[in-house]
Amino acid sequence: MSQEHPRKVKVDGAFVSLPFTHPHFSVFYRGVHGFVTTDFGVTVTFDWYSYARVILPTTYSGAVCGLCGNANGDPDDDFVTPAGHRASHETQLGDSWKVEDVPGCSAGCGAECPVCDAVNVQPYRGDRYCGVIARAGGPFRECHSVINPEPFLQDCAFDACHYKGHRDTVCQGISAYVTTCQSHGVAVETWRTAEFCALSCPPHSHYELCGSPCQPTCQTPSVPTSCPASPCSEGCFCNTGYVLSGSDCVPHSECGCEYLGRYYQKDTEFHPSCRERCRCGANGTVTCQEAFCGAHEECRVEDGMLGCHPTGYGRLVVSGDPHYVTFDGRSFNIPGSCTYILARVCEPARRLVNFTVLVEHEAGSHKDPVLMKRVVVSVHGYTITMERGRRWEVTVDLERYTLPLVTEDKNLRIGQEGNNIILHTAAGIRILYNTATFLLITVPDIYRGRLCGLGGDYDGDPSDDLRLPSGALAETTQEFVTSWKVPEKDRACSDGCDGGVCSRCDVTKEAMYSRNGSCGIIHDAEGPFQGCHPHVSPVEYFTHCVHDVCAASGDRAALCHSLQAYATACQAAGAMVRAWRTKEFCRKSGRILPLQVLFSTKAQKRHFVLEKKNKNPH
């Protein structure tokens, strides 16, 4: 279960529909939570957002370790590293139990962490925010004697302070206490209203404060008489006449199919094996045929799905002043401040999804001569706009949405990784934009030779990338760039540098900005990016860095943007990048990160819940 795929579960790397039963464990929904229960008494729950629990039988007391401690009843010995030493602070504890390097993951913000002291936190303990958790006579009063509300109030107010009272943060903090109370069989009273923490439910479902733990599903449409009355849970439950099909509420007539012991939703295609492709049709009917992968494809599990997936991917990069590296690796600069077609399908094919990506540049200051203003993507019938400086929201079909976002048809998934907006499409196209100076477009190999625009045709040959819309090759880069300009009526733009002459860096300055204390850090064989060199060539990024820093007269911000561009490209390729920012060099601002970044960085306090239960006498 991961925040990246709400209400979805992978088993051995592949998505499965819930409920899912295995000889030794079961996975199912209960309210807003996913549950994993085992035949040895351990239960794990997660709401796909911010609240996870591990519930152990008492037989595990003193036998476990990790961030949640040893479950021996003594909280004073919980801060222990794998080596058995007591951690001196939370960050050290977290780092000691880290299991793998995740792109964008860092050890924390240290002295640069935004600080909320007791004075700052106090207002968020009031009734406007988190105070309902501990309010005497409030909706949770029956739980106060069972579950101490103070730690939950502290956590809620701490997070609310860091996010300036962001309503979702407050609601998640309160919901954590509600979940814990209900899991202990304690009844709570209504606390959500239309104005405060209203829960929006998917189609054909509604909110219940105390919903049944046994929801009807396509596999079990009738709630068994043995279903326990408690613990109930709050969340979204299917309307009368509807049952759960995977994560959706559908009429029973729209239920899917069971095939080889697994459930599949109606109208979905799936591969039971690499040799067979099946489709779940009406009335639970499964039809299968022999499967063959097309050119540039191979059968494997990718992103939770067994099937035909691309053998590789092409990457188009726009960074800095701006500089372009086409899908085939050709580099050029664009001094213009207009809107251009970056990539689109010019050679359609039956299995290809058409798409178009536009980038709008605008004139900046002498330190940033040309800036990326917005990126517009048209795909799957949607138009998505990502704008400079808006790190946690996008516009879809002229409506603004806060991230993360998944469209109802599941064709688009838009979220965040660190400072980047990530757009995933069902067609396999992936777009990463840091809402400032870096854009990465990744397309699967099935688009080879079928694209056009400033990114080239992706045919493996960089020599023919400067192709005009007419199909002829441009004689100059300027002719090529101008040919892909989008006409605009409401603003004036420039196709090039003032007077047609672009500034150049003299030899002396070029040498100065090539040193390891500047752009040279990019290709330093012993530097923080050394682990990335085999994955992403540093050559173009180094050249672009020198160009931009020189154009900005050595401005430190230009250098930091260039280094961040290479770091982002490295992490997107799954390469390891060591810490390169310090308090004195490219220091990251202490500005609050958007809510969705909370669980992909270590800059904020984490909240873990470990519960114990009595051993089942049976």
Automatic annotation (TrEMBL):
Keywords for this protein: Disulfide bond, Glycoprotein, Membrane, Signal
Gene Ontology CC terms: extracellular matrix; membrane
Top-rank taxon, per record: Eukaryota
GO-annotated molecular function: extracellular matrix structural constituent
Pfam families named in the record: C8, TIL, TILa, VWD
Ranges where the VWFD domain occurs: 1-106, 314-494
PROSITE patterns cross-referenced by the UniProt entry: VWFD
Subcellular localization, as worded in the UniProt entry: Membrane
SUPFAM superfamilies for the chain: Serine protease inhibitors (SSF57567)
Major location (coarse): membrane
Identification of the protein by name: VWFD domain-containing protein
Organism: Taeniopygia guttata
